[in-house]
Amino acid sequence: MFDVQQLTFGQYDAVLNVLSFALVSMIFASFFMLASLGRVQQRYRSSLVISATVTGIAAYHYWRIFDSFKEAYAEGTQFNEAYRYVDWILTVPLLLVETVAVLALAKSVSRSLLVRLVPASALMIILGYPGEITNEVLPKMVWGALSTIPFIYILYILFVELGKSLARQPEGVAKEVQGLRLTLLATWGFYPIAYLFPVMGFEGELAFVFRQYGYSIADILAKAVFGLIIYKIARLKSFADDPEFAKAEGH
Amino acid sequence: MFDVQQLTFGQYDAVLNVLSFALVSMIFASFFMLASLGRVQQRYRSSLVISATVTGIAAYHYWRIFDSFKEAYAEGTQFNEAYRYVDWILTVPLLLVETVAVLALAKSVSRSLLVRLVPASALMIILGYPGEITNEVLPKMVWGALSTIPFIYILYILFVELGKSLARQPEGVAKEVQGLRLTLLATWGFYPIAYLFPVMGFEGELAFVFRQYGYSIADILAKAVFGLIIYKIARLKSFADDPEFAKAEGH
Description:
- 2 copies of one chain form a homodimer.
- In chain A, α2 (45-75) packs antiparallel against α3 (82-103) and α3 (82-103) runs parallel beside α8.
- The first copy, chain A, has one domain (8-248): Rhopdopsin 7-helix transmembrane proteins (Up-down Bundle), CATH 1.20.1070.10.
- By secondary structure, chain A is an all-alpha fold.
- Chain A is 80% helix and 0% strand.
- The A-B interface holds A 9, 13, 16-17, 20-21, 23-25, 27-28, 31-32, 35-36, 38-39, 248-251 and B 34, 37, 41-43, 45-46, 49-50, 52-53, 56-57, 60-61, 64, 78, 80, 82-83, 86, 90, 104, 107.
């Protein structure tokens, strides 16, 4: 395991600052979502509440990661990165639930999407974990490949199956959903890259700092910024559903 | 780097108190804004929520700065001032978003202002940071000068471009917007002065104490007091929009 006490003071500081940045982004994404519930119509509030829950869970885990990293550097204890996996097993399925919820599709369509997306996303995280904690190349590659299968299946559902349901969405929504999917693809795509750092021979202090920055920024985009796109979709759909509401909101 | 253990106990206490003062101002500015959402009409609530988010983010960072300063004095660890930059990169663009949001301008006008203001403000903070962490005069001056370009551009947009949109605002609002802009100019103007302290030969304990007071008071004015002016504008506009609402609010 990498010993964080090898980091220079500047590297330590840089990691601490990005962890704090992720933490504050998550807390106030939740805060903003909850304070903005009244800015969308009732039927879209579930997706905002789920988004606030996701960033709230992430804020908790960044708090733990921040403290664990600080303590590991000061006292030589082990830096606990398993918090990230505990976080993902909870938040990744929820992100897919909030995505489907905000579209307010027909009940049978939502259900059919979720019974495939949620188990696939849980499987993706679970299969990645044994590969993350090993330093040996072969098991890392095998678990990584296994974890990629549900990931590709999720992309198939989101880009192909979900696409069929977008035709009847109001103006502007299809474009925002495209933004959601690309954010998801770009940010989720970072995780397997960081996962493969050791296989690519990228190890030591700099790889550690780079991985912490990559994970933190990917998490901010995949959860907090993702939540803001969800909010924007919920607003657009609220305005399209009810012209009175749009007028009161100054739209 | 300045070692905070050089401070006398009186200086230490004075800094700790001003950091606590900033912290409590930020927390209760957020609290007041959220509790007052119902005191303005729907279309102005987004700007109040954004203002509460800004002071909330600032409260988090003052909490971290307070703890870091206390720990540095007690245990000789490094005082981490980078929290200020992490704060500004998030809050300064948001302050401009809340300013434009409260005016409830036509959608195309708001959009055109924000696509210029938000990137310019982020650029201003990012260009300032390399100059902040160096102690050498030349790079400090160069980064400072580069950071001033987007700052002047922001002032141009706020004082010239935004001015054109103020003619149709209800009575009293133009005066309040003038108050907003002057608060912004006066408080943002302090940051480059503190930035240039080392260049002006103003260093050591007293410069450190003075800088902490300056940053803290500038932050309180630029975020908490600024938010109260936003609230006042939202009230005035709510009354002008709807005489029934004005009457119910005892205006």
